[in-house]
Amino acid sequence: MNAFVFAAVLAATPIDLEQARALSRENTQSLVALLEASSAGQDVRTARSSLLPQLRFSASAAGEYNGPQRYFTVVPLPDGTFQRQVIDVPSSSNANFSLGLTLTQLIYDRSVWARLEQSGAQFEVQRGQATEQRDASELEGIQRFFALYRTQATIQVLEANVQRSEQQLERARALFQAGRVGKAEELSAQVNLGNDRIAVVTRQSQLAANQVQLATWLAMPGAEVVSAVDPGVLRREPESAPVLTEALEQARTHRPLLVALRQQLRAAELQERIAHAGYLPRLSFQAQYQRFGPNADVVYLQPQLQNSVNGALSLSWDLFNGLSTQAATRKAEFQSKVAELNLRQAERDLEGAVRQAHATVEAQILATQLAEANRKAAADALSLATERFNAGVSSTLEVRDAQLKLTQSELTLLENRIDVELARFALMRAMGTLDSGETQ
């Protein structure tokens, strides 16, 4: 590892896989989805409030002033005739004070009960979508973690190749000084070393990009340097994929998306009940306690006076409203059909996604096994080429070819082994077991 890379790694904040998963589930996207679900929970309380008693307090103080008034009136006379008279009324002022309590209680309205159930179903929809978003955020965090680890490991492979090139240059120089090979072999080894060092340096920009992508996703400052702690996947054999039938059953039971869509269907069916409630009567009760008077002392300070209590039982029934209830009912039925079609299509898509993810895991496991065999063969080939070069029976070109093949096989093994983990986590995401699953 060169000095620049070594210093950057020492200054970086280490992030292991479990930290990346946990922080991803609490990142901005996940928190927004959780807040939206909490908001939907308040809609349940709002819908329930219509079923609870409604108590309202009111108080008022009013004044009225009338200026001088003149009225014309006709009055009868003793002889049976009438005479018009002018009446002047002086100015006057009046006060009016009131105090009251109004209690309203809904007794029966089918639509209100249906809305309460619907708000509960919609809350479950939002909760399911929040869980789905948390899973999506976690998988994205896993992918960004492995992208950073992939780049770090790639740089280590390339640095190992630089060391091999340095050793080859030393051997070529020693053999040249001993007169066993020409100067061209030394110069060729020197060029190869320079190219390998360039390959390491050019990876630094990719490393910085991966660090930024992971840090910002985990709600860390974008300027903070992070490093992916080795998850140890290269030191163990990949485990086999779960049985496909079991994976499909897990997906049908645990996938948050399906849970949310089932609740969405239930909410649509409840909308039918809400619309149908327009055909039914509504019954409510209201009681009022009031105090009125022209004097504030009488209304507010003498409770034995000015009391008035009344109550009413109200029944309302829309016998005909221009067929709007029928239209609303039909519309709700259509929406239920749409929700059901979406659910069935999502179930089919999910089965396909699980099957595809399962096949990807199996294919990546096989590819990793083949890549490991290739790496061993490439290492043996490099050892043989090095021995032949040291014996003076081959050239730097042969060693370089074997060296590049070993580096490529190491990178291929690294790519496939990481792809196994990514495919496994993608399968867990499709199954809906990502939250409860442990790193394999």
Automatic annotation (TrEMBL):
Alphabetized GO MF terms: efflux transmembrane transporter activity; porin activity
Matching Gene3D superfamilies: Outer membrane efflux proteins (OEP)
Subcellular location(s) per record: Cell outer membrane
Entries under InterPro entries matching the protein: OMP_efflux (IPR003423), TolC-like (IPR051906)
Database matches in Pfam families: OEP
Assigned keywords, A-Z: Cell outer membrane, Coiled coil, Membrane, Transmembrane, Transmembrane beta strand, Transport
Keyword field contains Ligase: no
Superkingdom of this protein's organism: Bacteria
Coiled-coil region(s): 148-175
Any GO CC annotation of this UniProt entry: cell outer membrane
PANTHER family for the chain: OUTER MEMBRANE PROTEIN TOLC
Family from the record: Belongs to the outer membrane factor (OMF) (TC 1.B.17) family.
UniProt protein name: Outer membrane efflux protein
Lineage: Bacteria, Pseudomonadati, Myxococcota, Myxococcia, Myxococcales
